[in-house]
């Protein structure tokens, strides 16, 4: 379809100039014949080709140079007969990168498109906002430095004299263990789990003895130490005999209930008076 | 329902028949239509698409009756309860399969938009599958929107009324109008699963500025290059206005219909060949303006012309102003009138308000017992828009109230 369109256009141009050419010189009889032929072909159907057509381009170029005001069309390039005119309709096809896949999903899905895209775009925008705010950024930096200092103070005894400020190897594990204990871990990771009972007793006895020694030495030298942390007795659940009552105290063949026991049995008192 | 039966409301001509039937169903007022095309010699009385719409109403309601006069020029409609696609009322597997006959000349949006208006007030979710040789999903010369525009320009407005969940419009098979303009053999499924007691009161006063334009170029049974050519031309018009313009392309093969002639029943023929464009402009405040154009049934329109015209149509729709375009205004105004007894406000362009369908709608609403509209000039903005105040009826979903 495209070449046909192009051809018709070309003929129109020629037929326009044709009228002017009739008044021109007669010596170009061969090209005139070609022109008539083309005019005939444009209105009816193509004639069988019997002779080589003289180049029409020349004439048209001459004409256009004579009458420039007629049109600014300056003819086809030479050998236009062989060239096929192509018309591109989709020259700038929109690239897929223009819209995101999300947009395609929201718009072309079966659901009515919502404003879900805006939400995602605002979520993306939040990140740079937090970084450009200087007050919060300095706060964060200060906190970081503070934490590094705290750690250095706590773990400096582990540091190698030769190495830099970072731990390495076994020391790193030890530092990590210290941090865990700091955060509330009950026992050290490095505490031995299984050992003979006598050995464990020996270790605890030695630890107690060392502690006593330290306290005594401090007392003699007049140094005040931290208070001994009392180990609380775990008496939350009292052992009762089988078949014994689960509340109160059985004493002298009699179950004695304390005030607390009675209160627990009765439960919270409700103050609900309905006067009528 | 056991109240004294009201005398049917008398209305004349077939004008806005579908919308009047919807209002009748929503308000529960029986209605009597007279003088339906009485002077037409060839097509006297109700048209095929109107009969189809009546059958659709019967499918989604329970207890509705309609009596058509002998000549077809009179119609009495007594509405029932809107049940939706409840099991036991014609729905198989929760889906009402609804076939449109081949004589239908209107696009499927003629049925979709009124059905969507009924759906929020239904008792059960509405799930209707439109099939058959009469389903035209594209825009039609009679002014129907394409199914795409219903999805992208009408359905999002329901969210403003608090109706947003579980709404889907599946275009299962596309179809343009066939060569005679009748029928197309497309397939569309509407799922409307959000039923409310009362739609929320809305105040749409700020139209905002158009920030993005989206669209769908569709073609059935013709080369996909038509889509590209439409998109190219439409973008050429719209790109200088908004940077954020994108038109999606949807290519599908033409639907087949089995031929009617008895001599060769196995022969199938293509219908609904053509292409079209649906454009939607969205403003910064969520206002939607749409434009729709498809090839006429006779054909012979190059895609470039169609794309350009559609783009101009969109610009025209935007130029009318208001927070709601002409295509969506009946839907929004009806939902506002059916809302709670509260004043909702809507900013409309002067041209939109003074257009025939909107004035007709105002009269119809008044006839069906709704409150009148208050109209005043908009104080904000430079262009002469109008603010319409609509008081809701406050009755809402009768099915919900009983259940």
Beta-strand portion of chain B reads 25-35%
Structural class of chain A: mainly alpha
Low-confidence stretches of chain B: none
Number of DSSP strand runs of chain B: 20
Tell me the major beta sheet of chain B: 4 strands, mixed
Order of helices and strands of chain A: HHHHHHHHEEH
Q: What's the number of extended β-strand segments of chain A? A: 2
Pfam families (chain A): FSAF1 (PF15375)
Region (Disordered) (chain A): 1-28, 90-140, 229-250
GO cellular component, one term (chain A): nucleolus
Biased composition (Basic residues) (chain A): 1-11
Q: How would you characterize this protein structure?
A:
Chain B: Keywords: Nucleus, Ribosome biogenesis. Chain B: It is found in: Nucleus, Nucleolus. Chain B: It comes from Alectoria fallacina. Chain B: This is 18S rRNA biogenesis protein RCL1. Chain B: GO terms for molecular function: RNA endonuclease activity. Chain A: One of its GO terms (cellular component) is nucleolus. The complex is a heterodimer of chains A (276) and B (403). Chain A is mainly α and 276 residues long. Chain A has a domain at 2-66. Helix content of chain A is 50%, strand content 2%. Chain A has helices spanning 2-22, 29-43, 57-66, 101-108, 116-132, 134-155, 170-182, 197-220, 259-266; strands at 249-251, 254-256. In chain A, strands 1-2 form a two-stranded antiparallel sheet. In chain A, a hairpin with a 2-residue loop joins strand 1 (249-251) and strand 2. In chain A, helix 1 (2-22) packs across helix 2. Chain A is elongated. The model of chain A is unreliable at 1-6, 11-26, 52-68 and 116-130 (pLDDT under 50). Chain B has 403 residues and is α+β, with helices and mostly antiparallel strands. Chain B has a domain at 210-259 and 268-319: Dihydrodipicolinate Reductase, domain 2. Chain B has 10 helices and 20 strands. In chain B, strand 12, helix 5 (225-238) and strand 13 form a beta-alpha-beta unit. In chain B, helix 1 (17-27) packs parallel to helix 3 (109-118). The chains are: A mainly alpha (276), B alpha+beta (403).
């Amino acid at each position: 379809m495209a070449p046909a369109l192009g051809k018709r256009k070309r003929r129109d141009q020629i037929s326009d100039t044709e009228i002017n050419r009739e008044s021109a010189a007669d010596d170009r009889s061969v090209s005139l014949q070609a022109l008539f032929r083309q005019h005939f072909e444009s209105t009816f159907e193509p004639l069988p080709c019997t002779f080589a057509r003289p180049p029409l381009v020349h004439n048209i170029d001459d004409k256009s140079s004579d009458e420039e005001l007629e049109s600014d069309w300056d003819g086809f390039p030479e050998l236009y007969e062989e060239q096929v005119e192509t018309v591109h309709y989709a020259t700038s096809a929109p690239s897929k990168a223009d819209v995101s896949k999300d947009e395609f999903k929201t718009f072309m899905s079966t659901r009515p498109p919502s404003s879900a895209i805006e939400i995602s775009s605002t979520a993306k925008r939040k990140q740079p906002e937090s970084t450009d705010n200087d007050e919060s950024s300095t706060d964060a930096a200060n906190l970081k430095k503070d934490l590094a200092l705290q750690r250095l103070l706590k773990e400096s005894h582990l540091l190698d004299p030769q190495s830099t400020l970072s731990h390495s190897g076994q020391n790193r594990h030890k530092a990590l263990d210290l941090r865990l204990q700091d955060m509330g871990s009950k026992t050290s990771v490095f505490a031995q789990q299984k050992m003979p009972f006598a050995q464990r007793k020996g270790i605890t006895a030695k630890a107690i003895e060392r502690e006593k020694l330290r306290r005594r030495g401090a007392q003699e030298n007049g140094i005040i130490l931290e208070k001994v942390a009392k180990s609380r007795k775990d008496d939350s659940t009292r052992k009762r005999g089988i078949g014994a009552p689960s509340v109160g105290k059985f004493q002298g063949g009699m179950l004695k209930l304390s005030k607390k026991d009675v209160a627990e049995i009765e439960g919270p008192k409700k103050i609900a008076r309905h006067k009528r | 329902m056991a109240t004294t039966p009201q005398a049917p409301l008398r209305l004349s001509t077939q004008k806005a028949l579908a919308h009047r039937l919807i209002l009748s169903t929503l308000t529960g007022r029986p209605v009597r239509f007279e003088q339906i095309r009485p002077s037409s010699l060839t097509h006297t009385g109700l048209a095929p698409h109107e009969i189809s719409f009546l059958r659709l109403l019967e499918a989604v309601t329970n207890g509705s009756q309609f009596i058509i006069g002998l000549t077809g020029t009179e119609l009495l409609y007594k509405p029932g309860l809107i049940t939706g696609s409840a099991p036991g009322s014609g729905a198989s597997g929760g889906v009402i399969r609804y076939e449109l006959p081949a004589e239908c000349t209107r696009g499927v949006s003629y049925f979709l938009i009124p059905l969507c208006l009924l759906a929020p007030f239904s008792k059960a979710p509405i799930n209707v599958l439109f099939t058959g040789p009469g389903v035209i999903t594209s825009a039609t010369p009679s002014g129907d929107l394409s199914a795409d525009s219903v999805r992208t320009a009408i359905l999002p407005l329901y969210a403003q009324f608090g109706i947003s969940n579980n709404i889907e419009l599946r275009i299962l098979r596309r179809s343009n109008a066939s060569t005679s303009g009748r029928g197309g053999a497309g397939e569309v499924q509407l799922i409307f699963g959000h039923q409310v007691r009362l739609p929320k009161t809305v105040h749409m006063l700020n139209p905002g500025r158009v920030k993005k334009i989206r669209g769908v170029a569709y073609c059935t049974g013709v080369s996909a290059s038509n889509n590209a050519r439409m998109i190219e031309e439409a973008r050429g018009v719209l790109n200088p206005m908004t940077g954020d313009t994108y038109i999606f392309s949807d290519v599908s093969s033409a639907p087949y219909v089995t031929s009617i002639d008895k001599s060769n029943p196995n022969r199938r023929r293509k219908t609904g060949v053509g292409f079209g464009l649906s454009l939607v402009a969205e403003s910064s405040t969520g206002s939607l303006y749409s434009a729709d154009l498809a090839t006429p049934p006779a054909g012979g329109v190059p895609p470039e012309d169609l794309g350009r015209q559609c783009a101009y149509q969109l610009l025209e729709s935007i130029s009318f102003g208001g927070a709601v375009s002409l295509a969506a205004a009946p839907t929004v105004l009806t939902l506002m009138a059916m809302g709670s007894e509260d004043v909702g406000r809507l900013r409309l362009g002067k041209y939109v308000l003074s257009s025939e369908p909107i004035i007709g709608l105002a009269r119809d609403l008044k006839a069906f017992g709704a409150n009148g509209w208050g109209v005043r000039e908009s104080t904000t903005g430079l262009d002469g828009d109008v603010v319409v105040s609509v008081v809701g009826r406050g009755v809402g979903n009768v099915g919900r109230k009983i259940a």
